[in-house]
Fold this sequence. Notes:
Elements: H1 9-26, H2 29-44, E1 49-53, H3 58-63, E2 74-76, H4 88-94, H5 100-108, E3 115-119, H6 126-137, E4 141-146, H7 148-153, E5 169-172, E6 180-183, E7 190-193, H8 195-216, H9 232-243
Parallel strand pairs: 1-2, 1-3, 3-4, 4-5
Antiparallel strand pairs: 6-7
Amino acid sequence: MKSDKKQSGIDKYFKAIDSLQKEAVETQFKELVRIADRMVQTIIGGGRIFLFGTGHSHMLAEEGFFRAGGLAQAVPIFSTALMLHEKPTFSSHLERTAGIAENLLNFYKPEPGEMIFVFSNSGVNRLPVELAMLAKERGLFVVTISSFTYSKEAPLSTLGKRLDEVADIALDNKGVSGDALYKVDGTHWRVGSSSTIIGALLWNCLLAECAERMHENGYDLPVFASFNMSDAEDHNKGLLEKWQGLNPHL
């Protein structure tokens, strides 16, 4: 018998995001394995893995940085002007401005053979696309995460390129145009973004795969432990001593 009970917004959003998570991982499993292979090579070789995003995508750079279970070699590319806590309208302007990417890369001094993840939901804003292009020119292995659907509909910058077109491997976060996933019945409003959840999911899937592969081959994965765990302080101190010279945020 059909129920007349109205389905809640919680149920609808959860089902939508649950489906999207499965799609993002299951349809890109081969790409994730290839990226994990490259990450393991970079980690074993002592290279850094940079993470960059503007606006809300900067949260994904923070997701990989200095947290429990996080890679010591993950280096976020931060600029407070590109975040949202000072002036979000100015941040939105800057991510569409030419010439910033080179200065950011120069500050962090990436080396050929290292990696960079560039997060941008729309995949078209000038700064993330330009930074990915310059990083590739400098010999970095470039991984991008964006919404392919959104980037095909959004207007391109003067570079004339989408983020997925300039990557060594591009991942699709499977999001809808505009990012807000849940359509409120009877209105034109949409709420409930998906890009942060899917981006964090893909990153942590990669960490899990790296951990498995390195353990199988007799390597220790250099990850931070929560400072609330026993022996964490000494463990983390060793990682900090090794990586502080190569990561300006440690």
